[in-house]
Amino acid sequence: QYITAKLNDTITLKGWLGFYKFNDGDQVEVVAEKHADHYEVYAMLKPSEQIISLVPLCFAGRNQAFKIYRLPMFLFYVTCVLLMNYFFLDFSLENLVIGFGSLGVIFGAANFMVYKNSLASHVTLAERIFTVLGWKDVTNINLAKISKQYVAKLIIQEKYVEKYNNKTDQYIRPPKSGDGWFFFYYDPEVLCKKGKPPLRVKNKKRK
After folding, report:
1. 113 part of a folded domain
2. What angle in degrees, to the nearest 10, is found between the helix axes of 93-118 and 67-88?
3. CA distance linking residue 129 with residue 169, whole number of Å
4. CA torsion angle for 144, 149, 154, 160 (degrees, to 10)?
5. CA-CA to 110 of 20 to 30 Å: which in 42, 66, 103, 157?
6. Domain extent at residue 104
């Protein structure tokens, strides 16, 4: 969603953020860039609820952002090769090797272009946002996973209502998966520790 807001009744904020519903009077923290007549906002945090809403696609550092696409892309690649051999070639080992090789070159080049463009845009911006916020090990941050981890913590503390209303709750809190519409829970205890990756092994095993 594109927002226009006033901060402290003096600073004009504009920018694309996730679909979290901020209310008038909310105490927020903002990551923004100054322009001539406004500040372009890239992230807005509500510390009282530990929620962060970001510019779309800026949810993870470079080591985490592309992991979610690896399996779908691999399955798509294999499916394309099999369909090509089934409909256009004799289904043989030799043709499979040719198919995997030729499409592999095409897919490899396409993936490299996507990776390069993404790294130059939203991944780098995400890491800059995380750095400004003082978070550690920014290349390994994945807010979707950290948010899911934090929801699990809230459930244990009986601070999260597990019944989720898709009509109203989707704008005010992340679901159990942790992944809202580009807004997430964040956990300072995890994100601000030096020398430890944001996703620790013992937390991964709980998923």
Report:
1. yes
2. 150
3. 26
4. 40
5. 42
6. 63-129
3-state SS track over the chain: CEEEEEECCCEEEEEECCCCCCCCCCCCEEEEEECCCCEEEEEEEECCCCEEEECCCCCECHHHHCHHHHHHHHHHHHHHHHHHHHHHCCCCHHHHHHHHHHHHHHHHHHHHHHHHHHHHHHHHHHHHHHHHCCCCCHHHCEHHHHHHHHHHHHHHCCCCCCCCCCCCHHHCCCCCCCCCCCEEECCHHHHCCCCCCCCCHHHHCCC
Q: Is residue 195 part of a domain?
A: no
Is residue 198's pLDDT more than 90?
Answer: no
Two tokens, residue 9: 């009744």
Contact between 97 and 174 (Cβ < 8 Å): no
Residue 122 belongs to a domain: yes
Query: Considering the entire predicted model, what is its pTM?
Result: 0.73
Cβ contact 118:42 at 8 Å = no
Q: Residue 80 falls within a domain, yes or no?
A: yes
What is the bridge-based pairing of β-strands 29-34 and 11-16? unpaired
Whether the pLDDT of residue 52 is over 50: the answer is yes
Residue 112: Cβ-neighbour burial (10 angstroms; 0-12, 13-18, 19+): exposed
**pLDDT 10s digits, 94-123:** 877 877 888 788 777 776 776 666 555 788
The tens digit of pLDDT for each residue in 54-91 reads 999 899 998 888 776 667 777 887 888 888 777 777 77
